[in-house]
């Protein structure tokens, strides 16, 4: 710890603006004349407009005002029910609903054991450190039901987070303590970004960011003469400020392109043999594959051109440009959120190794840089407040994106990271802070999976499609309705989050709901430790204060912190992490891989014997190959105007829709061939489902590709049907629910193939935000 910034408070807030933070940035808020006003943090050079979703969302009709129970569950008791998703809801008092829920938790725990409860509860919830819903639900289940079946990994990095420990070592270190934005601004000479580094993505930071630095860093690098090259289907994945050259490529083919780049280096004798010798294992095996000695197919530029759509000559020219420069290879998370998603992550490392750049400032492998705002920054030098979750007595888990498989196929086996595992039989699912009807693939299949349950419990602030499938819906507060501490380990500002308004209707904090449930289960002391919210905040803040004091820095008391506009924490050096240390001295600082080196061939992965993830990076063939029935590749990427599905009904998100529908993009020639023009409504479909969207016709997308972001709330026009049309534009009715490979079983939601037609029928109204109809009981 050397870069000690003295704590500094920002310009004082005036006229009742109170500090707050969200995953989309630090901001302040006030109520004026009954309206919420928000404004970005004064020190933020490039604020995120997503905060403008708050005002319209705060009291929107989609909010949930009181506890609700699904009629079928109330009348028939727990059990499988096809009506989930189209049933009606009846209001119930808090005390009655918590009595019922406590009884049901007790029944499942006593009759089937805690291993029949799935509490993975994946999702981003909100930014506060205490009211973090996923931490709350885990803590509750650990203290009060004897634990739960959990999920491991994320939808974000399902393939890479399993692969990287085998081949590079420390995943966190790779994404967070490796190549920083400061290094790019100062050192990089060429940045080759597969899938880009879209500002819309880095504007989002789990826990919130006080300064969005990415645009400025790319601008400074570009002005200094650094070249940016974007490979991918969308021109907008690098900002104007980067001055990037766009190599338009077919999605899902990056591994082949990277191989051809390495092949071009090798045949020209330009690969860094010393680096490969000293820092890697397995190059000779891979080189034989690359040159075609093992399978008769050299992975050369002509071969790759046919697969990727990038001309052979552009590939060889790019290889030469990369050689001899401070070159940075970036691979977006998106590339591994696809079938065989492990391959581009592995091959990106091999390309960076062949260039000999790994471990140099601004060079090497910036995996996922720019995907989220906490990558490529410094770590704080003091601990951040964190709610302890307790110990889970159940050891069973699933890879997070295998939820439908688990619910549909209990007792069957599957492969994961070298193990053969068995899906448990789940009776009750508890969700707080996530939206599987946003995040999961093949929603019609997910619906069938949820129909199998005895009970689905959801805490939500709004009537998401997940809430509409639940048996018990408990309304929770939204972040602006409660007090918290905001921050994350890679942003200096610790924020006293202050409420702007009282809770909506009967909504309660997740903590209060769990505390009352724990009371009923006889575990209140274990869950609450006797603390009020305020006492928890003080308790969680204390380690940070103590560390500041120990470092000899001003260490405000909790009361002082609470009354401030935030304090900057000291930060660690930008030291390049383990990869820099390894480069400097590979013997003293081996990587935490089996060999201690970068593994181009992994004996361990080879020993797992998976055909879909062999022992070295391999081109396993394209999986999203368009055909006559589904002639387009659909890119279902992150939305620009919101975080996932959160506040889709907010002003900024809904203002970007057209005729109420999410906007898809397609190329002018594709549109013309189908009689589609700007602003038309289109029907996007495949064998799994169909949705409507509005269309933006633009040449900033590759021909043959259609893009529809995630996050429009699932809105089935006729929920009685097996595969109802989503009239709003949720791409997850189309995506395939399969794992990346038997190694990682990650989410593959980014790409699929689809048909596109103009929709000339009567346009059904959007009903996604209307609370489910309720007959008076
Ligand atoms: N097709 C496709 N699908 C994808 C992806 C893709 O690229 N393509 N990307 C995937 C990725 S990377 C991710 S991370 C997932 C994201 O999936 P999720 O994280 O599940 O999506 P969110 O919309 O952020 O869901 C958070 C939910 O928490 C609720 N919430 C907010 N605050 C609170 C609170 O205080 N308490 C409670 N109880 N609830 C709260 C919000 O209302 C919201 O419904 O989606 C994945 N899905
Ligand atoms: N505004 C906003 N920002 C977000 C989020 C959000 O919901 N909204 N979600 C956050 C989360 S949780 C995560 S995990 C990150 C996700 O970070 P990413 O997964 O990297 O983000 P995406 O926008 O899904 O994809 C980035 C780009 O990759 C390109 N792409 C897709 N497939 C391919 C391919 O096969 N090859 C190439 N070369 N390019 C391809 C697409 O054009 C896409 O725009 O974003 C974070 N940032
Ligand atoms: Mo994510």
The CATH class of the domain at 179-375 and 577-608: Alpha Beta
Which hetero ligands occur in this complex? ligand MGD, molybdenum atom
Predict the CATH topology of the domain at 179-375 and 577-608. Dimethylsulfoxide Reductase, domain 2
CATH homologous superfamily of the domain at 179-375 and 577-608?
Answer: Dimethylsulfoxide Reductase, domain 2
Termini Cα gap: 63 Å
Catalogue the unreliable spans.
1-12
Largest sheet: 6 strands, mixed
By helix and strand content, what is the structural category?
alpha/beta
Whole-number average pLDDT? 96
Radius of gyration: 26 Å
The strands making up the biggest β-sheet line up spatially as: 5-4-19-18-17-6
Number of extended strands: 30
Sheet-strand content, in percent, reads: 15-25%
Oligomer: single chain
Helix content: 25-40%
InterPro entries: Asp_de-COase-like_dom_sf, CT_DMSOR/BSOR/TMAOR, Molybdopterin_N, MoPterin_dinucl-bd_dom, Mopterin_OxRdtase, Mopterin_OxRdtase_prok_CS, Prok_Mopterin_Oxidored
Cofactor: Mo-bis(molybdopterin guanine dinucleotide)
Domain Molybdopterin oxidoreductase: 63-520
Pfam family, one: Molybdopterin_N
Task: Outline the structure in words.
- One of its GO terms (biological process) is anaerobic respiration.
- Residues 63-520 form the Molybdopterin oxidoreductase domain.
- The chain has 777 residues and is of the alpha/beta class.
- Helix content is 29%, strand content 16%.
- Among the domains are: 179-375 and 577-608, Dimethylsulfoxide Reductase, domain 2 (3-Layer(aba) Sandwich); 632-758, Barwin-like endoglucanases (Beta Barrel), CATH 2.40.40.
- A six-stranded mixed sheet has the order 5-4-19-18-17-6.
- Bound molecules: ligand MGD (2 copies) and molybdenum atom.
- The site of one ligand MGD has 35 residues, from helix 8, strand 9 and helix 15.
């Amino acid at each position: 710890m050397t870069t000690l910034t003295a704590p500094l408070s920002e310009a004082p807030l005036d006229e009742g603006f109170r500090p707050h933070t969200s995953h989309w940035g630090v901001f302040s808020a006030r109520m004026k004349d009954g309206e919420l006003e928000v404004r970005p943090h004064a020190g933020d050079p490039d604020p995120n407009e997503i905060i403008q979703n708050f005002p319209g969302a705060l009291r929107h009709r989609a909010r949930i005002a009181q506890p609700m129970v699904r009629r079928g569950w109330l009348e028939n008791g727990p059990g499988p029910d096809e009506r989930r998703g189209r049933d009606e809801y009846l209001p119930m008092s808090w005390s009655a609903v918590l009595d019922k829920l406590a009884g049901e938790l007790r029944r499942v725990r006593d009759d089937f054991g805690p291993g029949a409860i799935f509490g993975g509860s994946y999702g981003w919830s909100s930014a506060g450190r205490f009211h973090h819903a996923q931490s709350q639900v885990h803590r509750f289940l650990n203290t009060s039901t004897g634990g739960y079946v959990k999920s491991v990994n994320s939808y974000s990095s399902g393939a890479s987070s399993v692969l990287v420990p085998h081949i590079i070592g420390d995943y966190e270190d790779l994404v967070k303590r490796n190549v920083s934005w400061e290094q790019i601004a100062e050192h990089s000479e060429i940045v080759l970004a597969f899938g880009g580094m879209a500002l819309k993505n880095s504007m989002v930071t789990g826990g919130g960011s006080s300064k969005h630095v990415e645009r400025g860093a790319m601008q400074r690098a570009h002005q200094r003469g650094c070249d940016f090259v974007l490979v991918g289907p969308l021109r907008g994945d690098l900002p104007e400020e980067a001055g990037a050259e766009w190599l338009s490529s077919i999605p899902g083919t990056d591994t082949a392109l990277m191989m051809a780049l390495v092949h071009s280096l090798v045949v020209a004798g330009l690969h860094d043999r010393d680096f490969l010798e000293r820092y890697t294992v397995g190059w000779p095996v891979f080189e034989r594959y690359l040159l075609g000695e093992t399978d008769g197919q050299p992975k050369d530029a002509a071969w790759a051109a046919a697969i990727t759509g990038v001309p052979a000559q552009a590939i060889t020219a790019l290889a030469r440009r990369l050689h001899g420069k401070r070159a940075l290879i970036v691979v977006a998370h998106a590339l591994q959120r696809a079938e065989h998603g492990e391959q581009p992550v592995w091959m990106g490392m091999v390309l960076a190794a062949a260039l000999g750049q790994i471990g140099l400032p601004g060079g090497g492998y910036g995996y996922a840089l720019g995907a989220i705002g906490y990558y490529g920054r410094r770590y704080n030098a003091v601990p951040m407040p964190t709610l302890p979750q307790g110990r889970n007595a159940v050891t069973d888990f699933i890879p997070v994106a295998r939820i439908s498989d688990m619910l549909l196929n209990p007792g069957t086996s599957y492969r994961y990271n070298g193990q053969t595992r068995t899906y448990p039989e789940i009776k009750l699912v508890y969700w707080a802070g996530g939206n599987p009807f946003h995040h999961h693939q093949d929603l019609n299949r997910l619906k069938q999976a949820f129909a199998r349950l005895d009970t689905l419990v959801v805490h939500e602030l709004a009537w998401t499609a997940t809430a509409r499938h639940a048996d018990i819906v408990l309304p929770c507060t939204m972040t602006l309705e409660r007090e918290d501490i905001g921050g994350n380990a890679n942003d200096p500002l610790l924020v006293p989050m202050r409420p702007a308004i009282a809770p909506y209707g009967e909504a309660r904090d997740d903590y209060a709901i769990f505390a009352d449930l724990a009371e009923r289960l006889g575990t209140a002391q274990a869950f609450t430790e006797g603390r009020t919210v305020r006492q928890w905040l003080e308790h969680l803040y204390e380690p940070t204060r103590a560390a500041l004091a120990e470092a000899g820095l001003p260490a405000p008391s909790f009361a002082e912190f609470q009354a401030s506009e935030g304090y900057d924490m000291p930060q660690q050096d930008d030291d390049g992490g383990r990869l820099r240390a390894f480069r400097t001295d590979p013997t003293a600082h081996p990587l935490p891989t089996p060999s201690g080196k970068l593994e181009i061939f992994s004996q361990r992965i080879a020993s797992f014997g998976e055909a879909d993830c062999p022992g070295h990076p391999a081109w396993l063939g394209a999986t999203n190959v368009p055909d006559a029935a589904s002639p387009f590749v659909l890119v279902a990427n992150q939305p620009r105007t919101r975080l996932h599905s959160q506040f889709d009904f907010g002003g900024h998100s809904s203002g970007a829709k057209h005729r109420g529908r999410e906007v898809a993009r397609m190329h002018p020639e594709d549109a013309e061939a189908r009689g589609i023009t700007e602003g038309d409504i289109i029907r996007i479909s495949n064998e799994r489902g169909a949705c409507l969207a509005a269309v933006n016709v633009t040449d900033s997308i590759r021909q043959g590709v259609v893009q529809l972001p995630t996050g429009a709330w699932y809105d089935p026009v006729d929920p009685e049907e097996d595969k109802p049309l989503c009239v709003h534009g949720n791409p997850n009715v189309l995506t395939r629910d399969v794992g990346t490979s038997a190694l990682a079983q990650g989410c593959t939601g980014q790409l699929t193939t689809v048909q596109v037609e103009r929709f000339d029928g009567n346009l059904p109204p959007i009903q996604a935000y209307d609370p489910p109809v309720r007959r008076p009981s």
